[in-house]
Amino acid sequence: MSGVNRISGAGRLTPARTARFTFDGRTLTALEGDTVASALLSHDIHLVGRSFKYHRPRGILSAGAEEPNALLDVSRDAARRQPNVRATVQEVFDGMKVASQNRWPSLSFDVGSFNDFLSPFFAAGFYYKTFMWPKAAWHKLYEPFIRRAAGLGVTPTEPDPDHYASRYVHCDVLVVGAGVAGLAAALAAAKAGAKVIVCDEQGEVGGALHHDIGTVIDGKPGYGWAQQTGKALAAMDNVTLLTRTTAFGYYNHNFVALVERVTDHLAAVDETLPRERLWQVRAKKVILANGSIERHMVFANNDRPGIMLASAGRTYLNHFGVAVGKRVGIYTAHDSAYEAAFDLKRAGVAVPVIVDCRQKPGEAVLEEARNLGIEVLTGHSVVDTSGKLRVASISVARNGGGGQRKIAVDALLVSAGWTPSVHLFSQSRGKVKFDAATERFLPGIYAQECLSVGACNGTDDLQATIDEALAAGELAARAAGAKGGAQVALNGRNAFEWTGGMIGAAEGAGADKTVKAFIDFQHDVCAKDIRLAVREGMHSIEHIKRFTTNGMASDQGKLSNMHGLAIAAEALGKEIPAVGLTTFRQPYTPVTFGTIVSHSRGSLFDPARKTPMHAWEEAQGAEFEDVGNWKRAWFYPKAGETMHEAVARECKTVREVAGVFDASTLGKIEVVGPDAAKFLNLMYTNAWDNLKPGRCRYGIMLREDGFIYDDGVVGRLAEDRFHVTTTTGGAPRVLQHMEDYLQTEFPHLKVWLTSTTEQWAVIAVQGPKAREIIAPLVEGIDLSNEALPHMSVAEGRICGVPARLFRMSFTGELGFEVNVPADYGQAVWEAIWARAEPMGACAYGTETMHVLRAEKGYIIVGQDTDGTVTPDDAGLSWAVSRKKPDFVGIRGLKRPDLVRDGRKQLVGLLTKDPKVVLEEGAQIVADPNEPKPMTMLGHVTSAYWSPNCGRSIAMALVAGGRARLGQTLYVPMADRTIAVEVSDMVFFDKEGGRLNG
Amino acid sequence: MRKYSVFAVAREAMRGHKGWGPHWASPEPRKQYDVIIIGGGGHGLGAAYYLAKEHGITNVAVLEKGWIGGGNTGRNTTIIRSNYLYEESMDIYEHSLKLWENLSLDLNYNVMYSPRGVMMLSHNIHDQQSFKRHINANRLYGIDNEWLTPEQAKAYCPPLDIAKTARYPINGAALQRRGGTARHDAVAWGYARAASDRGVHIIQNTEVTGIRRDETGRVTGVDTNRGFIGAKKIGISAAGHTSTLMRMVDVRMPLQSQPLQALVSEPLKPIFPCVVMSNSVHAYISQSDKGEFVIGAGTDQYNSYSQTGGLQIITHTLDAICELFPMFRRVKMMRQWGGIVDVTQDRSPIQGVTPVPGLYLNAGWGTGGFKATPGSANLFAHLIARGEPHRLAAGLTLDRFRTGRLIDEAAAAAVAH
Amino acid sequence: MLLIYCPYCEEERSELEFRNGGDAHIARPTNMAEISDEEFEAYFFLRDNPKGVIFERWRHIHGCGRFFNAARDTVSDRFIATYRAGEPKPVLDAEPKTPATVETYEALEGAAQ
């Protein structure tokens, strides 16, 4: 038997199956099925943590997901360490290491608890009123001090070795919660033939039946009925039963996200299993059976270890077989806590007193208490407690004053009643209504296809819950289209009817000077803090929340919100509904980032696109650069070469001999149809009617606002067929842009668009020997200047492979771009390379491509333009048709600011010192001595060392640039000012004769 | 107004904090004001404060349909920086940053401006070109912004992974050291308190349902759910609700309202010293003084006023965060939320006169409004008081969409705010 | 994540398959080159941005690739109708179909019933 508090014969765990774990270095034994909380309690350990602000000793408060105190650091190994784990949820596995958090040097002696003595100073919002002087002191002095104290657990420092999974699923009916209501609803829906998913956050179905031993359903003990029903459901083909699975978010259109914890409870982890699995469920109908959460009582020093929720005390006894103390007091405003007293008493635990702040508890529970010989003090309140690291006594007084009586206890079970869990209902954007009689918010107006049943719907009676759930299950199934099956009937009864409940501060919360009556345990928010906030003018519940931080801790106010609201309402003199509720947001309980991320990591985070020649390039030792999603060969360094040397060599080689370049990433769109030319007339600034088949033209595409959107060479293969190229990064958006206009503005045009980017491998062969290199490989195309002049295209074969051969040049040299089906890309490349290499040609990368095109003044859209540049700004007015009545951008171009004088225009820049290469992005001024802020004329868009010019060259956008040719301007850098002369943009072969080889 | 100080706090500590009064008064509305500002966010409250402080106009009401600071002021990720590209942007954001530096003392309210540095990660050559363009422009304009090598970036922010093998390797970063964060609620409350102290009326739970005009077209006041309130001048500072308000005077706006999402993690011991942004992978992250990781996500693709959005937007952002910081995979999301941002086509704000005499506009801040709060408020007050824009906001006019004189920060750099 | 009915595929599919295309029923002027600066501003920049029913375009980009139109409530994010490009605006009930809709969660604050 493990643990001094384990009660023989109580609970549902199997004593034979044990597990060992450590807590702050101490080795402890647990039973299989224990949570960390139940295991610690079995060893009489209540003290498990320190609070956020005052570092008050804290114990285990609950037995569920609402736990605010017992947050522990749980690890399997160094990399599998998890901070802020709720001890009440985490199941023990053999070998786990558990450590307390937010304390130094130890849990029982924590230096930070000095804060508790300073707490009068640390009232809610005190930090807004001080730490202001002198000016920089907040950041330099105070904030570092506060940050050292901040946080609870310690952030993991190693990459997470676990993996996660994700699944999308559709179903007819999603049932959230597998307590009585959820199981009944799922059963009814499943029997009606619906495809059902039912999930529950606990390791087993049963919900609130975990803490119960008196309920009978279908003639069986409630918990046993639940397990049996769970098994039956799991066995049905149309049901998916998910335990350890929390529905954490209800989003638009009945999209509900669930997280399933797959391995965190297992001693030996199967590496093939994900740690957690994200279920993204789209349900036709959702049934919410979330149950309710018990509230604590708000009174002086209600936070000592050993003080816990009554239902938690029952759970630990009835499910885990653990008595939470040897002398357990009860303080309640609700009948349910009496049953905890009964169960404990029957298990042989001393229950010295039930303090009930109500005058009239339920008759039945009162009578049973008498029968069991438990003293009941009605109309009394607990006004204080004692005990440093564990509650030792409670002080009880009659309501309205009178003498105090001190009663020794080593645990105190409290209950202020139950709060229906409307979290998911609210996330679905349903509107809650306040039920004044029972002082609780209940589902009011539904916004999505969902139904609430059972405790979360305010239904208290067991039979009523069952009936409501069965009806909802069948209704949902029918609404989702299920046709089969028989009706289900069940009966059930509780041991006792329950009444009562209160919200807000109990009598024992005292006057609001120094008494600490906690509402939000983790954030140390007391009743007096709420009252202070109201005094300070915080009248909206959201202001009160933010000012006091009530409900902003990791439990998100599951216990504290209703109490805070009631105290605020009282202080404001308003009705509770008039004060309102703070917002319920996703997630219901915290969700691991890794689970949400799931498979999206590394290459699956964002797949890298590689060209058909990538492997060859890699083998040649190319360095790559990222361009959009593409990996592009950047340069091909030979052994010992720097980047500068490699690029210089490539640049010279291309102009002297030839170079081979992988241009496959250029976007390609096949534009086909009888109206293809008409369509291009509208999409590009240029005219296309007069382009003959077999010829190409450089086209500029604008947005409707007149700014350059994309550019590229378009080849006309036939009257009705164009091969359009786009920039590497622009292909998807250009296609979208074209489809948009084609489908919605010009649907009368008979045109079809197909993305062919990845269908073609493109091999550019550029340089004086380009023709010589490819000629023997090409069949069926005359490569002569006459037959295939610059800017033309022909179809034929290369290396026996069908090819589209473009005669075009982005280098200013004689050039061809060989398009072959992607699968043949590498083979054709290798064939070309086999001819090129012996001739002394090189393979070149994007950097050399950039230099060579800059030497010729060819622009790169996206580098030399930035979305604010018109064709005229870029010196491309010649490409804008003056005759066409319409094209996209025609009107935008004429707006006042786009035609004004002094716009930034693309020009060349030559540094006075030819060796100095400008920085791309450097700014240009006329007067280098102007004080800051200086008047900037523009910026350097491209700048390179040009090996072929033997000097640096640059392109720049300069205000009124073309009128400044020959002017001297300045580029002020951090360490020096560089003088430059404005020039035209063609730095090499100004006549352009080299295009023809 | 009771002055806040360490001494005042200590005195109150001795007597159970009984002596604090309300931050701001909650008066009944007057029949007539000189100025009504619609929208009780940081911008609106700040404008009211500066109207009183700098222009001597104290007969001012701020009308808020909910609770002050409850819109985007209380929903953003609190990033502050001024390293924008265009002069129009640098002017207003740097004006703002200078006001941030002294705001706590000016308001006698600790807004916790923390210049811990805003670092933008560069992942490729295009990023590098763009960032250098910003850095050079900022330097010549007198705004700090510097280029860091990957090693320098890691030294400044140790959790960064600068391995070259990463899917998005880091080839450098731009750092604005004066950039940082502030406490968002405190900004609204600090301005409200200081404005209220100077006589401004802060009127919550009051929704404007109409804007009245006289026969000349000039504004005369607003209809609200609490009746008509007169005003000689009206300023609109209502973010996502601007289009709805402007429709009351038949002006269509170049604005779209979209949900912008964000999330925080559970509180953890601080290890993350600054703000890190990556535009290539769409993520920005910092760690609050409570230890929560504050993570900004993107906007949903459709117009909405729902202050909520899809899980896929959060997912995309966390994908990026975990790719940049693999050790954060085991960290847990505690809360997600959305705000409604009003976005212009050029991603720059609109501040200026409107076609309606007496009606002034401050809108279109999109995802970048928080950092601009003091500057925008200060210049908006100038606009309302003088009837014409301040020199520093002169380029932000509404007519730029007609003339084409856009301030296209997004197109120029693809830099998110 | 929205669930969107594609009127071409005649199926409800996840938002991940679609791309929003902005306002619907904004016809490109046929005399584009001649319109005034004001008309261009109205065509290209000015939008109703309604708080309520918006008519908007979607493209089933990872499906059939077609553009279509939708009427959606921007407060509840509910679709009222989707219909093919070129079809006229559907006539909608004067009353919103979802009286249950609350503007935001925040609308609950101070106003819970």
UniProtKB/TrEMBL annotation, chain A:
Residues 516-596 form the SoxA A3 domain. This is Sarcosine oxidase subunit alpha. One of its GO terms (molecular function) is sarcosine oxidase activity. Keywords: Oxidoreductase. It comes from the Bacteria. Residues 904-989 form the Aminomethyltransferase C-terminal domain. Belongs to the GcvT family. Its EC number is 1.5.3.1. Residues 172-447 form the FAD/NAD(P)-binding domain. Pfam families: Fer2_4, GCV_T, GCV_T_C, Pyr_redox_2, SO_alpha_A3. Residues 613-884 form the GCVT N-terminal domain.
From TrEMBL, chain B:
GO terms for molecular function: sarcosine oxidase activity. Residues 35-79 form the Rhodanese domain. It is an enzyme of class 1 (oxidoreductase). Pfam families: DAO (PF01266). It catalyses: sarcosine + O2 + H2O = formaldehyde + glycine + H2O2; sarcosine + (6S)-5,6,7,8-tetrahydrofolate + O2 = (6R)-5,10-methylene-5,6,7,8-tetrahydrofolate + glycine + H2O2. Its main location: cytoplasm. Its cofactor is FMN; FAD. Keywords: Cytoplasm, FAD, Flavoprotein, FMN, Nucleotide-binding, Oxidoreductase. Its EC number is 1.5.3.24. InterPro entries: FAD-dep_OxRdtase (IPR006076), FAD/NAD-bd_sf (IPR036188), Rhodanese-like_dom (IPR001763), SoxB (IPR006278). It is found in: Cytoplasm. Belongs to the SoxB family. This is Sarcosine oxidase subunit beta. The lineage of its organism: Bacteria, Pseudomonadati, Pseudomonadota, Alphaproteobacteria, Hyphomicrobiales.
TrEMBL record, chain C:
Keywords: Oxidoreductase. Its EC number is 1.5.3.1. It comes from the Bacteria. GO terms for molecular function: sarcosine oxidase activity. It holds the Pfam family SoxD. InterPro entries: SoxD, SoxD_sf. This is Sarcosine oxidase subunit delta. The lineage of its organism: Bacteria, Pseudomonadati, Pseudomonadota, Alphaproteobacteria, Hyphomicrobiales.
